[in-house]
Amino acid sequence: MRGTTLDATVTFVTEDCCECGLPFAMTKEFKDRRVKDHGWFYCPSGHQQHYTGKTEEQKLREQLERAEIQRDHARSEAERQRRAAAAARGQVTKAKNRAAKGICPHPECKRSFVDVARHVKSKHPEMVEAS
Q1: Same domain, yes or no, for 121 and 60?
Q2: Is 1 domain-assigned?
Q3: Does residue 39 lie in a domain region?
Q4: Residues 98, 113: contact at Cβ < 8 Å?
Q5: Which helix (H) or strand (E) holds 13?
Q6: Are residue 40 and residue 65 in the same domain, yes or no?
Q7: In this predicted model, what pLDDT tens digit does every residue of 26-67 receive, in sequence order?
Q8: R_g over Cα of the chain
Q9: Number of domains in the chain
Q10: Domain of 45?
Q11: Residues 100-123: pLDDT tens digits?
Q12: Same domain? 95 vs 69
């Protein structure tokens, strides 16, 4: 292969050594790999260095993970509120049914009355204020 001519296009990017400030060039592909994997490389004077910042891909992945966590929390909260509302509706229905049967709707009162509303108003005023 000696004496063979190759026509190739290679893109180089420049960098300055973080230790001595010496400018040098590396291929774009090499720099992209080092930025992504944070691997070590050396300037021409032999100083070891690496890229520490997060890549755009890493930032986007973290942003997506945060969004997924927020979505899961929102779903859990919505489910909790749905169950709480269903439980509250059940308690209201239970109280209405008790009152319809002439039984005091207060959970600790088991007495029966012809006029439940008057009993509740006089003996359980907190139930009247709550409604």
Answers
A1: yes
A2: no
A3: yes
A4: no
A5: strand 12-16
A6: no
A7: 999 999 999 999 999 999 999 999 999 888 888 999 999 999
A8: 37
A9: 2
A10: 12-49
A11: 888 888 878 888 888 888 888 888
A12: yes
- List, in sequence order, every residue forming a beta bridge with 25; answer none if it has no partner: 14
Instruction: Report how far residue 17's alpha carbon sits from residue 33's, in angstroms, rounded to the nearest whole number.
Output: 17
Q: Is 62 strand, coil or helix?
A: helix
Paired tokens of 127:
């139930």
Tell me, yes or no, if the pTM score tops 0.85. no
- Six-digit token string for 59: 């930032």
Are 75 and 122 within one domain?
Answer: yes
Residue 106 token pair: 């207060």
Closest to 47 in 3D by CA, of 22, 83, 28, 71: 22
| Alpha-carbon gap, residue 93 to 39, rounded angstroms | 66
Distance CA 69, CA 52 (A): 26
The CA-to-CA distance between both ends of the chain, in Å, stands at 95
For residue 79, what are its two tokens? 């489910």
Q: Are residues 69 and 99 in the same domain?
A: yes
Q: Is residue 2 situated within a structural domain?
A: no
SS3 assignment, position 41: strand
Q: Report which residue type is found at 42.
A: Y
Q: Residue 7: inside a domain, yes or no?
A: no
Rounded distance, CA 69 to CA 78, Å?
Answer: 14
User: Which pairs from 124-127 meet CB under 8 Å and 24+ separation?
Assistant: none
